[in-house]
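Can't paste images in this forum, so I'm doing it all in text. The chain is below; anyone willing to post the predicted structure tokens underneath?
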Amino acid sequence: MNKQVHDGEHPLTAKAQSQNQAPWKKAAASLSLVLLGSGMTLAGGYLAGNPQQVSERASNLAVSRVNAASPLPTATGSNFVTQVVQKVGPAVVRIESSRTVASRIPSELYNDPFFRRFFGSLPEQQNRVQRGTGSGFILSQDGSILTNAHVVAGADTVRVILNDGRSFQGKVMGSDELTDVAVVKIQANNLPTVTVGNSDQLQPGEWAIAIGNPLGLDNTVTTGIISATGRSSNLIGAPDKRVEFIQTDAAINPGNSGGPLLNERGEVIGMNTAIIQRAQGLGFAIPINTAQRISNQLIATGKVQHTYLGIQMVGLTPQIKESLNSDPNSGVTVNEDKGVLIVRVMPNSPAARAGLRAGDVIQKLNGQSVADASSVQKAVENTQVGGDLRLELRRNGQNVNLAVRTGAFPTQQVQ
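Text version of the structure:
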């Protein structure tokens, strides 16, 4: 994927929250080291010691959806988790995938006479099979299943094992790399299904229940709370994603990817996706509303059209302004204390064609004030491809009004 055309927050955003005095480019580099050192990883992936990847796939079908939250049950009794598990557990599946990858013999070994004497003339490139495991949950009685894209990425074969032990060959109907959502279909009828909740109504402190197959331990249940909502992908170390994650302290482990995160009523509110290694209680799930929006497109067309402008941006604070203006290599001079600074405009992008420039500060979008990059990203994502956005900017101390016609993200692939 070409990450350079992807709208998103500049890495300065997250670092500036914890180290306001650092120059912005140094801060961005430090953030990467912190996140890589802490081991941001997916909660599922291929085995055989390969790096786990971050991605998500989700589907939106004719499933029972709750738009208005019903009263929360009291959690004073010991059975509310049991009731949720009994209700949802039969609809949670294990997904096994395999793919063939090429392994190249190091040239120094291949050309070594001693090596060739004992092993003969071997091909420089050999194929081997990688096997991975993850979770998913059934959305429709005829076998549509939601899981993470990274669970089935590049798979030659997909196998779905139901809670009752039955096994089916799965077909990937579509996946979306930017949100890590995928839809898998099996040929079956009268399957148990989940009830989908409304992730927009989540509040920190609510109960969270995760069901999945970590490390091959089927039907594992863990509990915790919703620790936070709206965690930007940049903040948690996945800047190539277009997701605002749910954070939970319910235990999520490798193999949980694609499994449901549930509320007290047993409604799916998220899809478990990622963890930060060597840290306790830091798990992340894709909001179910996002997953369903993506899955609707995957089911209809097998691909997803993401709207984009072609900018990198950062929400301004006095500290970020100071860091930028004190760095001779920043390339911009900022006069504003608030708004969203455009750090970079991608060549030949909708933003470039509309006349946006690095250094512009977005004050309003479609008449609404914006304070951070996430607000701009939401507005862009909620606009149809080819739709117009009205931007009110500050440029070199002057007010500038521009209209931008959104484009389709240019690197979408059907897997």
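The chain has two domains: 1-38+305-415, 44-300. The chain has a mean pLDDT of 80.
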